[in-house]
Specification:
Length: 420
C-alpha cells in the first residue's frame, strides 16, 4: 500500500532505537526498495513533557527513540516556537496553561516516562533561594500531584531536571524533600550532575533526578564524573530510597569550540556596536580583563569570546570569559543577562549581542526553526531550555535501557561491559 508522506516527526527526531514496547504504536514512514513511501507501525515509548518550553527535552528524547505524546507550558510565546518547530501531529497535544490547573484526565495514560524541567528561579544561586517553597520552583509540587493522581497509570520512569543549586538549596532540604516525594510514589531515585559542556562549548551544569519504579541494581562504585563528592550525601542518607545505575563515562568537558558556532557576519553588519558603545564596553572591564582582551586584540587571526553584564556595587559592568567556551545562557529578562559576542584579533575589537541562531547552536539545536520567532522570544526560550545533547545522552544511556528493562547492572567497568 502506498501513502502520501506525512511528516509526523520533529525535524530533528530520529527513527532509531524503535522498540517493541507495550506502549503506544504510531506510524513511521519508510521508503521501500521501489522508492515508495509506506507507513508502518513501530512502537516507541511515550513521554509526558512537563514545563516543555520550546521543546528541547523533546528533541533529545526523540533522538533516542522516545515519542513525546503530551506537553504542557503556560507561556504562549514558547508554545508558538514549539509548534513552529514540530510538525502538527494528531498523536501529540500541547496543553497551554498553568500546571496548577492541569487535570489528570487530560494526560495520556500509557506513558513510560514523565520529564519535568521545572522552573529553577528559586533554586539558582542568582535567585533569592526560596527553594521549593518559592512561587515558581514550587510548581514542582503540582507535577508531583499529577503523578499522584495518575495512580496505576503513573509512568515507570520520571526525570526531574533543574540547576545544580537544587543540591544545596536550604542545606539540601529541598533535594531531600523532592526525593522523598518521589519515594512516596514508588520511585527509587538516582541523582546525576551533567554539564552541557561535555557535548557543547557552553558551561551549563545541571542536575538530573532519574526515578524508577523498577530500579536497576545499585552500583556502589560511585561514578565520580556523574555523581561528584558534593552529591554523595544523598546516597548516604538511609532514609531515602536511592540507586546508582552503572553508566558509561560521559565525554570530557570541552575547552574550545565556541568560535566554530559563531554566525558568519561581515564587519560592516550593523549589529556590531558603534565606536562609542564599544569604548564604553572596554571602559567597564576590570583592569585584568582589559589587559587580557587587549592582548588578544593584538594577536593575528580571529578569536571569539562571550561577555555578560553583571552589576557590581550598583554599577553595570561587563565580564569577558577567558576561554573559547560560552558562559551559561540564561533568560534575557530586561537584557541584563543577555550574552554578547566579542570578536578579537588583527588589531580589532568588536562587540555585538549574541544572535538567536548562536543561542540555538549553543543549546545543540542549530537546525531549530527560527523563522517566525522574535529575537527576544528566541533568546528567552533558549535561555530557559535544556541542552539537547545532554538529554540525548541521558536518554540513550539511561532512560531507554531503563524503560526497556535492559540497563547494564554489572559491577564490572561499564565502558568495558558496554563494548564487550
Ligand atoms: C526551565 S524551563 C524548561 C524549558 C524546557 N525544558 C525547554 O527545553 O524549553 C521551565 C518552564 O516552565 C514553564 N512554567 C513555569 N511555571 C509554569 C506553570 N505554572 N505552569 C506551566 N508551565 C510553567 C516556563 O514557561 C518554562 O518554559
Amino acid at each position: 500500500m502506498t501513502f502520501k508522506k506525512v511528516d509526523v516527526h520533529a525535524r530533528s527526531s530520529s527513527t532509531s532505537a524503535a522498540s517493541q514496547d507495550k506502549n503506544a504504536t504510531f506510524p513511521l514512514d519508510t521508503v521501500d526498495p521501489m522508492g515508495e513511501v509506506t507507513s508502518i507501525n513501530v512502537a516507541r515509548p511515550r513521554v509526558l513533557e512537563f514545563f516543555a518550553g520550546i521543546g528541547l527535552a523533546r528533541m533529545g528524547l526523540e533522538s533516542a527513540g522516545f515519542r513525546v505524546a503530551w506537553a504542557n507550558d503556560f507561556e504562549a510565546d514558547k508554545k508558538a516556537m514549539y509548534e513552529a518547530q514540530f510538525a502538527e501531529d494528531p498523536e501529540h497535544t500541547f496543553s497551554l496553561g498553568d500546571i496548577a490547573r492541569t487535570k489528570v484526565s487530560e494526560l495520556p495514560k500509557d506513558a513510560s516516562l514523565a520529564w519535568a524541567s521545572s522552573p529553577c528561579t528559586d533554586l539558582s544561586l542568582a535567585g533569592a533561594r526560596a527553594g521549593f517553597a518559592g512561587a515558581q520552583s514550587g510548581t514542582f509540587w503540582h507535577f508531583i500531584q499529577l503523578l499522584t493522581d495518575l495512580g496505576k497509570n503513573r509512568p515507570d520512569v520520571v526525570v526531574l531536571e533543574n540547576v545544580t543549586g537544587l543540591a544545596s538549596s536550604h542545606g539540601g532540604d529541598d533535594l531531600t524533600a523532592a526525593i522523598r516525594a518521589f519515594n512516596q510514589l514508588g520511585y527509587s531515585i538516582d541523582v546525576l550532575a551533567l554539564d552541557a559542556r561535555r557535548f557543547l562549548p557552553q558551561s551549563r551544569p545541571r542536575l538530573f533526578l532519574v526515578g524508577a519504579q523498577n530500579p536497576p541494581t545499585d552500583n556502589p562504585d560511585p561514578n565520580s564524573e556523574l555523581r561528584p563528592d558534593w552529591l554523595q550525601w544523598v546516597y548516604g542518607d538511609k532514609s531515602l530510597r536511592t540507586h546508582r545505575a552503572a553508566l558509561p563515562t560521559p565525554p570530557k568537558p570541552k575547552t574550545e569550540g565556541l568560535g566554530e558556532l559563531i554566525e558568519d557576519m561581515p564587519l560592516s553588519d550593523e549589529r556590531w556596536w558603534d565606536e562609542s558603545r564599544t569604548t564604553a564596553f572596554i571602559g567597564s572591564l576590570s583592569p585584568t580583563q582589559r589587559d587580557r582582551v587587549m592582548r588578544l586584540r593584538r594577536t593575528s587571526g580571529v578569536k571569539y569570546r562571550t561577555a555578560y553584564r553583571r552589576t557590581r556595587k550598583g554599577t553595570a559592568v561587563w565580564e569577558v570569559r577567558p576561554d573559547d567556551v560560552s558562559g551559561c545562557l540564561r533568560t534575557a529578562r530586561g537584557g541584563s543577562s543577555k550574552q554578547a559576542v566579542v570578536r578579537l584579533g588583527n588589531k580589532r575589537l568588536q562587540v555585538r549581542w549574541m544572535t538567536p541562531l548562536e543561542y540555538a547552536r549553543l543549546m545543540g539545536a542549530g537546525d531549530y526553526n527560527l523563522d517566525s520567532a522574535r529575537t527576544n522570544q528566541a533568546l528567552f526560550g533558549f535561555g530557559d531550555a535544556v541542552a539537547v545533547p545532554a538529554v540525548a545522552w541521558l536518554a540513550e544511556n539511561y532512560l531507554m535501557p531503563l524503560v526497556k528493562g535492559d540497563l547494564v547492572t554489572l559491577g564490572a567497568p561499564v565502558d568495558e561491559a558496554l563494548n564487550g
